[in-house]
Amino acid sequence: MIGLLDHPTNGKILIDGIDTTTLNDNNISSFRNKKLGFIFQFSNLLSDLTVLENVLLPKQIGKSSNDSKKEAKDLLKAVGLEDQMSKRANKISGGQAQRAAIARGLINKPSIVLADEPTGNLDSVTSETIVQLMKSMAKKLNQTFIIVTHDRQHFGDVDKVITIKDGKAFEGDQPSAMEVLV
Predict the structure, then answer these.
(1) pTM for this prediction
(2) Distance from first CA to last CA of the chain, Å, rounded?
(3) How many CB atoms lie under 10 A from the CB of residue 147?
(4) What confidence tens digit (pLDDT) does each residue in 20-68 have?
């Protein structure tokens, strides 16, 4: 629901004070592009595009005219991919692709970043780098990261933990359950 991919059967979804349930499809797409960042469990990069072109896609969809290429390069450098920018997405490793996907999810400086297992395909050193990047971006840009993970220990201190176990949500850690970190 937060990603505006489904409509509620009743109630409202308020994001940044905007009732998103009243938006038409075009406005939802525009709102999603400006306010929401997505980091999927699998990178979902377009294989025929370069790493840099994949990161720039949300900017191009939003028809952004600022210095997008510099921002994309800075993000790719921050995730350790400065030497992979011109490679096609199908020519990099799975971990590199996930880091490119993280940069793509952050490029529009969204208010909310929805991350599904963002470190699931990464080694422990890269995972720590990515977690620290997400935490610094959250503070620097006043972003909210909503992270779904089965691997809680990588994320350390977070503002809130919601655990989902057997279809029920609990506040705080629960053993053997999927956790949503906010």
Answers:
(1) 0.79
(2) 16
(3) 23
(4) 999 999 899 889 888 899 988 778 899 999 999 999 998 888 666 667 8
